[in-house]
């Protein structure tokens, strides 16, 4: 199992809409997340930043993420979410949400 943390900004004027959408995430999107071996997925907000945490339980993260990125319903969901988000300038090339380095973990 791999733990993943990532961060992005949410546009202040879009925060309530972002929250509203996440109270009713489409079942097809949730199903694809599970089919791509992601578990224990959470998104937190603080001072304009969204922090995402999830656990990956598969064997090929890149392939699972490619499969998710090819899913029509997920792409439709992302098309609604992306205008609400503002990526960090320091993110790596080809990242939308910036991956974070884990510096501490306790079981």
Task: Give a written overview of the molecule.
It is a single chain. The radius of gyration is 14 Å and the shape is globular. It contains four helices and five strands. With 107 residues, it is α+β, with helices and mostly antiparallel strands. The protein has one domain: Alpha-Beta Plaits (2-Layer Sandwich), CATH 3.30.70.
Q: Which tags fit this structure?
A:
single chain; 107 residues; alpha+beta; Alpha-Beta Plaits; five-stranded antiparallel beta sheet; 28% strand
Major sheet, described briefly?
5 strands, antiparallel
Oligomer: single chain
Q: What is the ordering of alpha helices and beta strands?
A: EHHEEHHEE
**Gyration radius, rounded:** 14 Å
Discrete helix count: 4
Euclidean distance between termini CA atoms: 13 Å
Named CATH topology: Alpha-Beta Plaits
Average pLDDT taken over every residue = 97
- How helix-rich are the residues, as a percent range? 25-40%
- β content, as a range? 25-35%
| Total domains | 1
Count of beta strands: 5
What would you call the structural class?
A: alpha+beta
CATH top level assignment:
Alpha Beta
Nutshell version of this structure?
This protein has 107 residues and is an alpha+beta fold. It is built from 4 helices and 5 strands. The protein has a single domain, classed as Alpha-Beta Plaits, CATH 3.30.70.100.
């Amino acid at each position: 199992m791999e733990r993943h943390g990532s961060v992005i900004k949410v546009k202040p004027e879009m925060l309530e809409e972002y929250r509203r959408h996440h109270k009713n995430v489409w079942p097809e999107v949730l199903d694809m997340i599970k089919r791509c071996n992601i578990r224990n997925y959470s998104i937190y907000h603080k001072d304009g930043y969204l922090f995402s945490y999830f656990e990956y339980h598969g064997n090929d993260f890149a392939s699972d993420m490619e499969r998710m990125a090819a899913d029509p319903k997920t792409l439709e969901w992302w098309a609604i979410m992306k205008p609400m988000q503002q990526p960090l300038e320091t993110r790596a090339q080809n990242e939308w949400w910036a991956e974070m380095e884990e510096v501490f973990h306790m079981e």
